[in-house]
Specification:
Length: about 190
């Protein structure tokens, strides 16, 4: 008989229920730490366990806790990425009423065009960073996009504050080296 890290035989529904009860709070807290949205964190927790249930039917998970944490983190980061694009588009549409009466149509047009270009540049950089190094992407997204305190992000990522700051420095230098024009465009914003 093979046992999992919770000390039970991992066969069927009972084994899944034991894993769920043991890790549901941890998975919820992980998702909530990233997004600070109660209902979204619950949905991410449920999605994580659904994927685990499907996955465990086909193969044996050696380290259940790490598998669940990694899956929850990836689902959460995908949620953040997808919703940040939607929020940017919503903000762009809402800005139509934010312009003053004194601005000409030409000024409004060029301002919108410039904002759209900044959003595209940021999207390009974040997509490339995600493909280059996912830990860099996590750190940059949490610190700079979501404006989480660096100390909190370091704890969440399981590293020292100095290591996080070093990682952010390397990520910024990589962005500058490979996307200097886009970086300068965003930095002007």
């Amino acid at each position: 008989m093979k046992e999992t890290d919770v000390g039970i035989e991992f066969i069927g529904r009972q084994g899944f229920d034991a894993i769920y009860e043991k890790y549901k709070d941890l998975i919820f807290q992980t998702a909530f730490l990233y997004i600070n949205e109660w209902y979204a964190a619950e949905d991410i927790m449920q999605e994580t366990f659904l994927r685990y249930y499907i996955y465990m039917e086909h193969t044996r998970v050696e380290n259940t806790k790490n598998w669940l944490l990694t899956t929850a983190k990836n689902i959460t980061l995908n949620y953040i990425r997808d919703n940040s694009r939607a929020i940017c588009l919503d903000l762009e549409e809402d800005e139509e009423g934010a312009y003053g009466l004194g601005e000409s149509g030409e000024e409004i047009f060029f301002d919108k065009l410039w904002r759209r270009e900044v959003l595209r540049s940021a999207d390009t950089i974040l997509d490339a960073l995600y493909r280059r190094n996912r830990r860099w992407y996590d750190a940059v997204t949490l610190v700079y996009c979501m404006e989480k305190p660096q100390k909190q992000v370091a704890e969440c990522m399981g590293m020292s504050l100095e290591s996080l700051q070093s990682m952010l420095y390397r990520a910024r230098n990589w962005i500058k080296k490979h996307y200097s024009e886009e970086y300068d465009h965003i930095h002007e914003a």
